[in-house]
Design brief:
The strands form two sheets. This protein has a seven-stranded mixed β-sheet with strand order 5-2-1-6-9-8-7, sandwiched between helices. It has a two-stranded parallel ribbon with strand order 3-4. The protein is of the alpha/beta class. It is globular, with a radius of gyration of 20 Å. Helices cover 40% and strands 19% of the residues.
């Protein structure tokens, strides 16, 4: 069996909320195979062609005004289930992803569990029955295709950590790539002897990655296989490990492991932003919620700014650095 993996982010640009970098790893007969084709009986790309299947695509295409995060949630929880995970609360979902900072959120009370805002139950937008049906369907098709979910994960970069790192590096892109590199190192250490193929969505307009990979894998031989406007491909070698890494434009629309990583990142960010908005709604009932992006974030900050001293919240802890 071979290994293919995908990495993608959500929340790179917002003023509020965490940055998420998701990771998915699949065990497959052929790492170059189209996983949408392999799982066609259970999985589809487009919401309009679901016919009872699980939609997997770039997360921006799956969150809709009508359904909210339902399609994101159904896909994330179904794939987590066939990997052996059935979280019933948000904190358990974070544990599945290997995120540990949520165990101490005293500096970020808008996420921290309390008697008035305990960790929410899952699922939130679909039902346990719908997840069970999706899980059973996906499991049967995956078994028939000799495909398995080897690993799911995500880096959750909360606001305080994000600000410290951006301040130190003076670069949001460098901060984001730190966690992309962490996922690559995880794949290298766990699966490097199986010659994994890793797909990554191009990072914030960056056009080459040779120096970044060399810095993060100093003992490996690094070979640049391709550099073009649409893709950069590298091979890392250090016997017995070998890994091919492909940075591609629109990778989340081209490769299912990246699409699912995008969904995991977006779904997790949405769960945490729901806690963010619930915290402030309890204290400032007249303030409309925010997704944390652009102009709406500025509107929200203008609405709450005068109240922050009374709530004991420092703006620099709440607002992410640009």
């Amino acid at each position: 069996m071979a290994i293919c993996a995908g990495i993608d982010e959500a929340g790179y640009g917002p003023m509020f909320g965490p940055l998420l970098i998701g990771r998915t790893i699949f065990s497959v007969p052929d790492p170059e195979a189209d996983l949408w084709d392999l799982l066609d009986e259970a999985v589809c790309r487009n919401l309009s062609r679901r016919r009872g299947r699980i939609a997997v695509n770039d997360s921006k295409k799956l969150k809709t005004p009508a359904a909210g995060i339902k399609h994101l949630e159904l896909g994330c929880l179904a794939f987590a289930a066939i990997a052996g995970h059935r979280p019933s609360r948000v904190d358990q979902w974070l544990d599945v992803l290997g995120e540990h900072e949520h165990h101490d959120l005293t500096q970020l009370p808008w996420y921290a569990p309390s008697s008035e805002q305990p960790w929410g139950e899952l699922p939130t937008a679909t039902t346990a029955g719908e997840v069970a049906v999706a899980r059973a369907m996906l499991s049967g098709v995956a078994n028939k295709a000799a495909l398995a979910v080897a690993d799911l994960g995500a880096a959750v970069v909360f606001e305080d950590r994000f600000n410290r790192m951006v301040s130190a590096t003076r670069s949001k892109a460098a901060t984001s790539f730190t966690f992309v590199a962490g996922h690559l190192q995880h794949i290298w250490q766990r699966f490097g002897d199986q010659r994994p193929l890793v797909f990554i969505d191009r990072q914030s307009g960056r056009t080459h990655y040779r120096e970044l990979l060399a810095m993060n894998f100093p003992d490996a031989r690094l070979i640049e296989l391709e550099r073009s406007p649409k893709s950069c491909i590298y091979r890392l070698e250090q016997s017995p490990r070998q890994m091919e890494v492909r940075f591609e434009v629109n990778a989340d629309s081209l490769h299912m492991p990246v699409a699912l990583a995008s969904m995991i990142a977006k779904y997790t960010r949405e769960l945490l932003m729901a806690r963010f908005n619930a915290f402030f709604k309890q204290r400032l009932p007249d303030v409309r919620p925010t997704a944390g992006y652009a102009m709406d974030a500025k509107r929200w900050l203008a609405d709450v700014e005068d109240h922050l001293p009374r709530l004991g919240i420092q703006p620099q802890c709440l607002c992410r650095r640009a």
